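Page 42, continued from yesterday. The earlier attempt failed because a stray header line got pasted into the input along with the sequence. Redoing it now with the clean sequence only.
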Amino acid sequence: MTPTTTRLISLDALRGFTIAAMILVNYPGSWNHVFPPLLHASWNGLTMTDFIYPFFLFIVGVSVAFAYTKRLQGGFPKEEMYKKILVRSLKIFLVGVFLNLIPDFNFSEMRITGVLQRIAIVFLVCAFLFLHTDWKKQVYLAGGILLSYWLAMTLIPTPDEGKVMLEPGRNLAAWIDRILLPGRMWEGNWDPEGLFSTLPAIVTGILGLLAGKILLADNNQQLKANYLMALGVPLVLLGLLWAQVFPINKHLWTSSFTLVTGGTAFIALGACYFLVDVLGKQKGTRAGIIFGANAITVYVLADILSLLFYRAEFAGTSLNMHFLNGLTSSGLPAKLASLLYALLFVGINFIPAYLLYKRKIFIKL
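This time it went through. Structure tokens are written below.
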């Protein structure tokens, strides 16, 4: 089928709303007062918040398919693309390391891994896969990674324990990270964005490549929406079935977690595509498009602005606590006040996003 690269409003909006959701759950008024759905599952299990990060990695894969199909159609030689892919991945990775260092820049406690670092790796791998493999090879590779990861995590004993375990800091992924990762890890002896668990996270990006393949096909639009949603359902069911022997766990990015969240992303993208691009119901998408136009830039700005709102003190108290104390003293429940602050912080980050969008400034890290 002849591919088409028409820009999708639904994809742009979904990317932006995903970034807005990331900011919402990352910056509550107080971590002591948060509604449970806005927290990650403590270990095994799944909350609404656990879908956000895999959704973004899935969108990275879809975006790679669109961006590099356009370049290939434009006659860009692959050799030119390699350098740009490598440079962009390195920039995103280094910005992630920079965010880990601020504000103290204590290099002895530097954390190498992180959200942006994993995004950089997934983008790098997916971009090269897209340029050098077809969708069938991508399916085989994704299945092979998920099966291999499951077998490794559930059959190979960790050398320091002498047995197979899937507990925090006591599993094969944590052991590998302790051996290979320099510097500090997020949870002391393990890291949720570690090296080994990045392998199944790459599969989340590959699922996005496959979704992009469907959207780029010169097919009836409604049929493409149906394909996306129809493929999402068996992925979710297979993930739930797999969870009986390999629990759903975001921290380990288990194979079951990959399929459940990836399948849900298929369904969400298919539904958004049908509503927005097929039926033309674009009301309410503008905020998402504005956030999504500079998605990673807005994520970085939120981290930097948080220093002002959470670390700097005014009259002996940080701004977030001034806001929280003001609302709770007026009678609002603490968790609701914390949520309102998070929404306010999302709104504050919308301002620079809007200004960049209005001036047609699109920062590509």
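Notes: The CA atoms of residues 102 and 110 lie 10 Å apart.
Reminder to self: strip header lines before submitting.
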